[in-house]
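Supplementary Methods S3. Complex input for the flavin-adenine dinucleotide-bound model.
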Amino acid sequence: MSGHAIVVGGGIGGLAAAVALRRIGWRATVLERAGELREIGAGMSQAPNALRALEELGVGGQARAAGVPTFSAGNLRLPDGRYLQRARPGDPTPLLAFHRADLHKLLLEGVPDGWLRTGTEVTGLRQDERGVTVVWDGGEARADLVIGADGIRSTVRRLLWPDTPPPRFLGRTAWLGIAPTGGLPGSITMGSGGYFLIHPISRGRAYWAYVTTADRPEVRYEKEKAEAARRLAAWHEPIPELIAATPDEAVIHIDICDLDPLPSYVRGRVALLGDAAHAMSPDRGQGAGQSIEDAVVLAAALSGEAATGAAAGGAIEGALRRYDTERRPRTQATARGARADGRRTTAPAAHRVLTTMIRLMPAALWRQGITADGNATWRWQPPHLPVAPGR
Ligand SMILES: Cc1cc2nc3c(=O)[nH]c(=O)nc-3n(C[C@H](O)[C@H](O)[C@H](O)COP(=O)(O)OP(=O)(O)OC[C@H]3O[C@@H](n4cnc5c(N)ncnc54)[C@H](O)[C@@H]3O)c2cc1C
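Predicted complex, serialized as structure tokens:
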């Protein structure tokens, strides 16, 4: 089966979906509301599950070239600098860290010219048994199916799932930055009420994030960098140094929110993907990775349908139902786990117990848990995508 899909949203999830559709011989139109396609200046890590999905999309080599191995899961510290667990020189790590823009760019390079339409904010959607029409200010387009990859505040979700509650503020806030500091291995420092993450990223830079509790959302400071520096002044180096080295305009302050589980990711010929379906707390470093997995599974479901040549309605709806059945349990369990991890790692009352448990864990056991197949989330294997001729 081949056909034409409209993807709403040109973030990591939307672009991964377009690349996946191209692989199986579909056409796609990506509609992005931003006038120019670019990712905000922050970093992220990708775990083995997502790296395997990128491989299946045909961009594994590019991802390995753009990512930097990070030992964030191997180097756990306390604010006074003591190590709870420490990676040994020469240890392997299955995690790669990226500047978001690098990951975004390598996916964008897999999207054919002419598939992306920027400056197009989708505002309406209607479907019948033969297709879906997507509407924006001044235009509309029709396709065999629509993928809503338009993020945590998804318009597609609001239009088709109007009773869904808005994103939930999780009582945590975060400062993020990119410093021109190379040579750091990656680490997490666990304080009482917050943690500080460092990943090395491309071109000799470091991405850092400080996640901490907050009573309410949307509290902002005149000087965000100064506020982060003030809160972390007594923490071990290189934390104060990293913040000091970060240009003021490269510090971002966001609130941490997620989505309550949806009863379905699919309605007729429309499927939600990525944060639109299952936005999660960042504490497991899985949000974007799950969106890349979604893209591969969705394309595999579509390619598994009878090769009739035309995108028959029943076949599309069947494929989307299979996508929903396969993706909902895994992504919702990951989101639940991330929400609980975030609560545990930032709750002052849990700090002493948690850090003592980590310190007492035998180093060999800790290392076992952070190998490529050391935990259930990372062990995931993508379905194989049958690559269409010329793709
Ligand atoms: C602090 C932090 C750290 C994180 N760290 C990690 C990590 O280490 N690893 C990881 O895998 N994930 C991480 N994540 C999660 C990750 O950032 C998200 O899960 C991922 O970016 C979601 O991608 P998406 O494409 O689904 O949505 P988005 O990136 O939100 O993209 C949605 C796109 O849709 C567009 N859009 C919105 N509405 C419309 C409309 N009506 N019409 C057209 N276009 C529209 C938007 O402009 C945007 O470009 C982190 C998140 C945070 C907040």
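The mean pLDDT is 95. Residues 8-14, 31-34, 44-46, 121-122, 149-151, 155, 174, 176, 209, 254, 274-276, 282, 285-289, 291 surround flavin-adenine dinucleotide (CB under 6 Å).
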